[in-house]
Amino acid sequence: MTKLYARSGQGIVQPKIGQHGISTPTMSSLEMVDYINAERQVKAEEEGMSFPCKKYRKLRHDSFMAKVPKVLGETQSPKFFGDYIDGKGRAQSCYNFPKREACLMAMSYSYDLQAKVYDYMEELDRQAHGYLNCTVQELQDIVAGARKISDEDSSDAGRRLRQRQDDLVVLERAESLVQSLSQLKLDLIGGGKQLEVR
Length: 198
Known about the structure:
Elements: E1 17-18, E2 27-28, H1 29-46, H2 61-72, E3 81-85, E4 91-97, H3 99-107, H4 111-128, H5 136-153, H6 161-183, E5 185-187, E6 194-196
Antiparallel strand pairs: 1-3, 2-4, 3-4, 5-6
């Protein structure tokens, strides 16, 4: 399965989305259209075709917007209504989907797309709730990577020596915290058993 990344990281600037009080991570209808078109482009190129083509047409945002009430329902879809400012400074309509609705919309196009959107929404959710949602192994990898970078930077003597001393204090605290987390025993409610986190 080809992994699709958020289009804004690939040189395409996403318009600013108005999320009017939405506190959970969302995926806009604009991002969804980008994902769908990226998936279609990958499929076309894998089959030796240019994109767009007759088999893989480019999805327009207005066509996607018209499909939303059909998939999510006439009464549910207005709950996710939003707006954005387009390149000409005009307010335009869009949707901001939480994970469930983003997956439902993606599934209406393909199961592969649904899996990619689900993974993307999981990552957004994890980023929104910070690194405490990382596994202990991921935390260990983050700290090891930070130490490696600090070690490499310290080779430029003199100028970097002071920064290295500051880095070491933070790194030692982080390593100690991650080590403590890896030794943590959790009492499970009702079972009387302990689970060791590794």
